[in-house]
Design brief:
Length: about 110
């Protein structure tokens, strides 16, 4: 059974940093493409970052240069390093592989 479990969210001041983790079980992340999405309050879910099986990465324009997606194959975990956070980055962040979603982790950014 595939499970994705996000962690690392919290409250941070604008300009601060957080690192989100997505721990996978039932799948091996090194073989797969994994995405991070976010859903701000009252808004639609949007794709933030993606990593391909080969390690290529892609980012939404709004986070380029500030967020970094990475993978630790030994820990079977995907990370999202978020720097220079802005109030508009506040959202529930989810990791995703195909039809599989985690329950999300909440990021709050105070101005």
């Amino acid at each position: 059974q595939v499970q994705l479990v996000e962690s690392g969210g919290g409250l941070v001041q604008a300009g601060g940093s957080l690192r989100l983790s997505c721990a996978a079980s039932g799948i091996s992340v090194y073989r797969l493409g994994i995405d991070w999405y976010r859903q701000p309050p009252g808004k639609q879910r949007e794709n933030v970052a993606a990593i391909s099986p080969g390690g290529a990465t892609n980012y939404a324009d709004s986070v380029k240069g500030r967020f970094t997606i990475s993978r630790d194959n030994a820990k079977n975990t995907i990370y999202l390093q978020m720097n220079s956070l802005r109030p508009e980055d506040a959202a529930v962040y989810f990791c995703n592989h195909l039809v599989h979603w985690g329950k999300g982790t909440l990021v709050t950014v105070s101005s």
